[in-house]
Amino acid sequence: MAAFATLYFVWGSTYLAIRIAVQSAPPFMLAGVRFAIAGTLLLLWRHYRSGVQWPTRREWLGGGAVGACLVLLSNVAVVFAEKTIPSGVTALFAAGTPLLIALFNGHRTGASLGRRRAIGLALGTCGMILLGGATLAAVHHVTPLLLMALASVAWAVGSTYGRGWGQADDVMMASATQMLVGGLLATIVGLAAGEGQWLQTHTITWQSAVAWGYLAIVGSMVAYPVFQWLLTVADATAVASYTYVNPIVAVALGMILLGEEISPRMMIATAVLIPAVILVVTGAAKRELEVKEEV
User: Fold this and answer.
1) Pick from 275, 236, 233, 230: nearest CA to 100
2) What is the mean pLDDT of residues 225-253?
3) What pTM was computed for the model?
4) Tally of structural domains, the chain
5) Torsion-angle region of residue 114: left (phi > 0), alpha (psi -120 to 50) or beta?
6) What does the pLDDT look like over 156-168, one tens digit per residue?
7) Which of 43, 93, 187, 262 is the right S-S partner for 176, CB 3.0 to 4.6 Å?
C-alpha cells in the first residue's frame, strides 16, 4: 500500500509543480531534461552500485518505446496543457486514463474486469464528472483537451501494451531506460523547436527551478520506478487508480498553497472517489486470487 500511496500523493503534487515550473521554462526542455537526468542517474546507480548489467539493444528499444509513450507523448502533452489550464483541471482530465487502461489491458490479456472493479470504475467516472463539472469552464480552447486526450491514450498504451515490449528484467533499470530515452527524445524535439534559443533569452525563476528539481528527484527518480514496479506485481487497472486520487491532492494543494476554495461539489466527489479507489484496488487483488485458485 505504501507504493500506491506514493503514486497517489507524489504524482498528485506534480501537477502543481508542473504548473509552477512551466511559467518560466519551455515545455519540451522542462520534461525532457528532467527525465533524461533522472534516467541517467538511475542507470548509473543500478549498474555501478547494484551490479545490474547494462541493458541489451533489445531492452533499449523496448524501454525507449515505452519512454516515448510515457514521456514524449504523455508527460510533455500534460506540460503543454498546463500552460493554459489550471493544474487541478489537468489532473481531472487525466483521471479518465483508468478506463482506457482497463480497456487496453483487457484486450491485451483477455481477462475480464470483474464486478467489483467495474463498479469501482463506474463510481470513479461519476466522481470525476462531479469534480470536473465546476471546473470545465476554465478551458476555453480545444487544444488543451486534445493534448490531454493524447496524453491519456499514450500513457494507457505504454502502461499496458508496453509490458510486452522487451525490457530489462530489473525494474529500476527498465525505468531508467524509459526515462533516459523518453527524456532525450523530448529534449531533441525541444531543441528542434527552438527552445534552446528560448533558454538563452529568458530567465527561469527560482520558483520554477525548485519545482523542476522536485519533479526530477521526487516525481521521476522516486515515483516513476514505483509505478513501473507496481505494473509488474499488480493489475494495471488497479495501478491506474492513482488518477482518481491525484485530482483530490491537486485541489487540496491549491487550497493550501494558493488559497483556493473547496466547493460542496468537490466534497461530494471526494466521498464518491474514495470508495471507487478501494473497489478498483481490492477488486484487482480478489481477481488475482481467484485466478490463482483456478490454476
Assistant:
1) 236
2) 77
3) 0.75
4) 1
5) left
6) 888 888 877 888 8
7) 43
* In the chain, alpha helices (H): 2-21, 27-48, 57-67, 76-81, 87-94, 97-109, 115-133, 142-160, 171-192, 195-201, 206-214, 223-233, 236-239, 242-258, 264-294
DSSP character at residue 137: G
- Chain centroid to CA 294: how far? 33
Greater confidence, 245 or 270? 245
Pairwise CA distance, residues 209 & 213, whole Å: 6
**Residue that is written with C-alpha cell 527551478 in the block:** 209
Q: Which residues contact 97 (CB under 8 A, 6 or more apart)?
A: 152, 155, 156, 240, 243
Read off the amino acid at residue 114: G
Q: Is the pLDDT of residue 61 over 90?
A: yes
78-97 burial, b at 16+ Cβ within 10 Å, e below that, comes to bbbbbebbbbbbbbbbbbbb
Q: Which domain holds residue 159?
A: 2-294
With H, G, I as helix, E, B as strand and everything else as coil, classify residue 255.
Answer: helix
Total number of residues shown for the chain: 295
